[in-house]
């Protein structure tokens, strides 16, 4: 029976009814979670976007609106809170805006720390990339009408035309950076 069931809501419902009539237990079928959302939550669960001043206002005022009129739907209560925010004076909004700015700065500081940690974990650039970082600005300045792809092609041509001794300088620098990175990774693992 299971192999005949297709992944549609009608088929699922039919399967559930048939299993219930026969007294069988249904196997649990968990909903598929978004892989992107799951990865994001695992990566940085504490780095969420800071609430805006309006969000903070809603957090304070919405329960009071619902308490005053418990029969209001969520949409109607939200509309009432929105109207209160729009009609509020700057003096009423100021504490919420200050709190939002403080929270936004705290999140920005956390993000800066996380980005610095990720950058420290990142593998250092290779010889060609070091060459490109050093010389790309001059190539773009010398060829202002060129596209990114054309500039990349010119950089590749310059790298190939570079004398082996000059290439070796970049290769040595890349090896030094890679060794330092590997030592730092080894020290961090221990």
Shape: elongated
Count of DSSP-assigned helices: 8
Work out the radius of gyration: 30 Å
Given as residue ranges, the uncertain stretches (5+ residues, pLDDT < 50) are 1-7
Task: Specify the structural class.
Answer: mainly alpha
Report the β-strand fraction as a percent range: under 5%
Mean pLDDT: 82
The secondary-structure element order is: HHHHHHHH
CATH-defined fold name of the largest domain: DNA Binding (I), subunit A
Name given to the CATH architecture of the largest domain: Orthogonal Bundle
Main beta-sheet annotation: none
CATH class of the largest domain: Mainly Alpha
Distance between the termini: 54 Å
DSSP E strands, number: 0
- Helical content stands at over 70%
How many structural units, i.e. domains?
Answer: 3
List the helices and strands and how they pair.
Elements: H1 9-22, H2 35-43, H3 53-68, H4 74-87, H5 90-121, H6 127-142, H7 148-161, H8 164-189
Structure report:
This protein is mainly α and 190 residues long. It has 3 domains: 2-43, no CATH class; 53-121, DNA Binding (I), subunit A, CATH 1.10.30; 127-189, DNA Binding (I), subunit A. Helix content is 74%, strand content 0%. The chain is built from 8 helices and no strands. The chain is elongated and about 80 Å long. It starts with 8 loop residues before the first helix and ends with a helix. The model is unreliable at 1-7 (pLDDT under 50).
